Amino acid sequence: MSAGEDGRSTPDGRSTPDERSTPDGRSTAEEPWPVRVVSQKVGAWIARLGWVWVDGQVAQISRRPGASTVFLTLRDPSADLSLTVTTNRDVLDAGAPELREGARVVLHAKPEFYAARGTLSLRADEIRQVGLGELLARLEKLKKLLAAEGLFDRSRKRRLPFLPGRVGLITGRASAAERDVLTNARRRWPAVDFRTINVAVQGPGAVPDIVGALKVLDADPAVDVIVIARGGGGIEDLLPFSDEALCRAVFACRTPVVSAIGHETDAPLLDYVADVRASTPTDAAKRIVPDLTEEVRLIGQARSRLERAVRHLVDREQHRIDLLRSRPVLARPQVMVEQRTVEVAALRDRAGRSLEHRLRGATDDLRHTLARLRALSPAATLERGYAIVQRADGHVVRAAADVAKGDPLRVRLAEGELTATVDG
């Protein structure tokens, strides 16, 4: 019986005669594929990938006594993903005899799909443990890449709030870093509020744990600043804090992030991406909250300066008021009124005398004019015995020829008048 006759796929992945499908090879509801056929096709597709080089972190090693096969669990440092790797003991001893859990490795392997269990694994024929020099070279290459993308740009770094309402802390459980941050921060500002998330700070699960905690704290509106803290350690121990996924997660945070990793000389890539780099967890505590004692002292100094400034201003204005009040016009303000009163009285007196003089002169002029009028008045002439003779039409008779015999005349006297007729 050939491989195709028993209902299995051929090595090149082509369909066998017993596959119930449409003429073009697709399965339908009426003609579904059996599980074995699906498994065969999956295995065939995976086999097409061929041999590949894989980079990862060893999460678990299983060496069974007397067995020639060694099982490894290879984990992605930047994601919660892992694959099972099988290899020969001789291959492991030749490439990485001192391999331990948590180490970084590069292996040459071929993906295989185990149809009986429906699992995927890698079969390795070469394993290389990544040395310190190679790790540093990789970190330097990643550092240049992130710097070129602008993740280290100082212009995008945010200032920390003067007094955060709540501080998010990501650190190891019951670690010295956690104790240093909490103790020193509360010593400086006793009312500081922390939301602490404990995570693995080294090993295969460190990066996913830290990234997950970072997302939780960044989504909390009450958290004003996030601190990522860890104590000192070797370069391998601090590798999670130079992981590309963690650096990009910190760069994407909306909340300011403080990096407090290791000691003064330690400089993981997280230090370059974070908004503020603290040399130690204790230094981070000093940066995130102000010192209450120092702030009280500064407030006291400010109040003293303000009080002195106010007193100086008041004294200066009081001196100006005293100078103004010392002037005669303000020392005895009634003097100005008295002077004006005297001036007004003098003006009134002069005006009265001038008016009286002018009235007296006008009276004399009027008296003289009246005397002249009286002297020239016809009435005065009549009083001396003269009379005015007028015709009937009112014309004054000045000559005898102005009248004729029989004309009536009117004779005006000083007192009264007479009527007469011309006789001749």
TrEMBL record:
What are its GO biological-process terms? DNA catabolic process
Cell compartments where the protein resides: Cytoplasm
Q: Does the keyword Transmembrane apply?
A: no
What segment(s) does the record annotate as region Disordered?
Answer: 1-33
Q: What EC number(s) are associated with this protein in UniProt? A: 3.1.11.6
Which InterPro entries would you find in this protein's record? Exonuc_VII_L, Exonuc_VII_lsu_C, OB-fold_nuc-bd_dom
Q: Which catalytic reaction applies to this protein?
A: Exonucleolytic cleavage in either 5'- to 3'- or 3'- to 5'-direction to yield nucleoside 5'-phosphates
Q: Which GO terms describe its cellular component?
A: cytoplasm; exodeoxyribonuclease VII complex
Q: Where is the composition biased (Basic and acidic residues)?
A: 1-29
Pfam families (alphabetical): Exonuc_VII_L (PF02601), tRNA_anti_2 (PF13742)
Q: Where is the OB-fold nucleic acid binding domain?
A: 34-128
Role noted for this protein: Bidirectionally degrades single-stranded DNA into large acid-insoluble oligonucleotides, which are then degraded further into small acid-soluble oligonucleotides.
Which family does the similarity line name?
Belongs to the XseA family.
The record's note on quaternary structure and interaction partners says: Heterooligomer composed of large and small subunits.
Protein name per its UniProtKB record: Exodeoxyribonuclease 7 large subunit
Species of the source: Micromonospora marina
Q: Which gene encodes it?
A: xseA
